[in-house]
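Researcher: I'm comparing several assemblies side by side, and this is the next one on my list. It has 738 residues spread over four chains. Same procedure as the others: predict the full complex and return the structure.
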Amino acid sequence: MDRRIPVDDDRTGHRIVPEAIRRSDRPADRLAGARYGNRPTMKDVAARAGVGLKTVSRVVNGEPGVTPETEHRVQEAIDALGFRRNDSARVLRKGRTASVGLVLEDLADPFYGPLSRAVEEVARAHGALLINGSSAEDPDREQELALALCARRVDGLVIIPAGDDHRYLEPELKAGVATVFVDRPAGKIDADCVLSDNYGGARDGVAHLIAHGHRRIGFIGDMPRIHTSAERLRGYRTAMEDAGIPVEDSWMSLGVTDPERVRDAAEGMLTGPSPVTAIFAGNNRVTVTVIRVLAEQTRRVALVGFDDIELADLLEPGVTVVAQDAAAIGRNAAERLFRQLDGTLVTPERIELPTRLITRGSGELPPAD
Amino acid sequence: MDRRIPVDDDRTGHRIVPEAIRRSDRPADRLAGARYGNRPTMKDVAARAGVGLKTVSRVVNGEPGVTPETEHRVQEAIDALGFRRNDSARVLRKGRTASVGLVLEDLADPFYGPLSRAVEEVARAHGALLINGSSAEDPDREQELALALCARRVDGLVIIPAGDDHRYLEPELKAGVATVFVDRPAGKIDADCVLSDNYGGARDGVAHLIAHGHRRIGFIGDMPRIHTSAERLRGYRTAMEDAGIPVEDSWMSLGVTDPERVRDAAEGMLTGPSPVTAIFAGNNRVTVTVIRVLAEQTRRVALVGFDDIELADLLEPGVTVVAQDAAAIGRNAAERLFRQLDGTLVTPERIELPTRLITRGSGELPPAD
DNA sequence: CCCGGATCTGACAACGTTGTCCAGGCTCTA
DNA sequence: TAGAGCCTGGACAACGTTGTCAGATCCGGG
């Protein structure tokens, strides 16, 4: 706090850079011109090395047919000028960008970290750069982002949909942009998608509670217009039906996402006329809120959550969850994307990856009336 | 699981696209040509609308000087052809890309979610796209990524350094690429950076333990070559020194990151000849592992962690932490970046943001010998 | 000494867009 | 009705790179 490294010391680097200073003097530059601060081009390198333009290009791209001696001279000029190839121009000429776009919902959601990372790894393995942005669950923003990426001519697009109508992508698909939807299917267009088995996972999770003796089981989920929510709800209903348990309306809360409201919903179903003895939480955010609520109860209420949460095993009791494999989903999606680009893959498919029930205690509590 | 959307139905979208099919027939196309699957250009639009090239450009960019009637004709042609402006060409011509790069360490680390998101929000507010990638803590990969972004001519770069030598960026800085380092300072160059007050935060955290009566306090941190680790270690040492407590070597573990080794280290300092009664964990990953170890102990050991962790308040006891405000750091960094681009900001500075001690129980346990 | 062939090099066009500049047609006024 | 001034539209060059192609150089063999 008290001893800071001085910022105006005399270390190397960032001396007075003429361009940097001048930039602030000419406001006009800021808006239109600025020409990347006048970076050297191949032409400059060629002039300095005393060779032709194409020879520089050859050296930069490691193409054969350049004498070691010439190559050396060019390389020297490159280093001296600090030249770096302008990929925009390259892309324009070559037609391929070697980059893929990822549109996700919310960067801050822990589910997307591993997913995003898996996509990046695969992209990297294929020599492509990953460009991503998040839609903040706003369909308009998703569209805006996806189209911006298309305008940059990404070779492919991995999308975690926020909206439910993706016809805006039709021209892009037609133009050959590879596309894979993840976590939720595409709306109103036919495209590749990679999902978790939301229905089966939820069904198994609820069946697990039933197997431990519960009959009055609550379900708290997101808006049913979201595919994953609808599927998980369907799984809940099926499990209850299979066990011959009629579901009461007061056991279900759909469409509330705000933690305060989730809390109200949970408390409501715990204290109603026919109080639940177990809760199935439809996603990780809901799970966390429900954990808080249950911690305040004297009665022990069972809980199974969809999606794993960090430290779930350290809580008392440990939280039983239906876990998705985010990394596997991401890897799968990215690999399909590149197979589309290969031409190895032509027919759109829907892939559903299995979920895994992880028992840690909270789902194995017996009913306490 | 059972009901899948048929892939060969007759809805619109994804009909047999000649380009897509032909692409797989001509392997050569995959590598070099492919020309974005022959997307329409402004020329095509102009031809179809029966106007000049520049008129199309004007319509696309909303420039004035086009009759509503002409504009309408052009717009129709655009929709009919599914035209989308090629931003690569635009960038080449204009010299500005309206995009910034973010190089982070590990997308899966929860600390970077909010940070990344904050950067994105600011970028978005400035009309820029965010391109990001993660270095996986590998200095070579950080360099590779940063330079790849420069080759794409991003206007600016936010870097969370993995390495400690950033001289490779000198030509880029000179060329006018705005750059802000985050979380750790730049190595061997003079550049803007936005950090947490790691030293002060750690010092306060350790002082907090001392205030609760602890004298034998352990420190588990990352490699001291990482700036944050070194600063936090320095804070630990200062706090101990200020309290007149000589530090024993066996109380410190530096440079272990692998959870198994962290566990060994923690167990070691709990059972050694002069066992600690409290532990200061140098980062969130260490904190989590230490929580696990302490949960297995019969003796109650106090804990303060650097960096907040999710659900820290639900554990028993709640985990006391020194919290960084990742979102504030990201916002700050991004805003500085755009101020550099404005020209409003010229002198590199080091900004240190305060941390906040959040007491939840684990840091307030008394010493138990 | 000349020629064929191999090797190396450079001039040039093209990629799709935007900035500049000018032509032509219109309206308005004197 | 002529001239001035405005509005609309289009021809053209340029951005920095790469593919094509042809020219230059050098070698050894006839």
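Model: For your comparison table: The first helix of chain A runs from residue 18 to 25.
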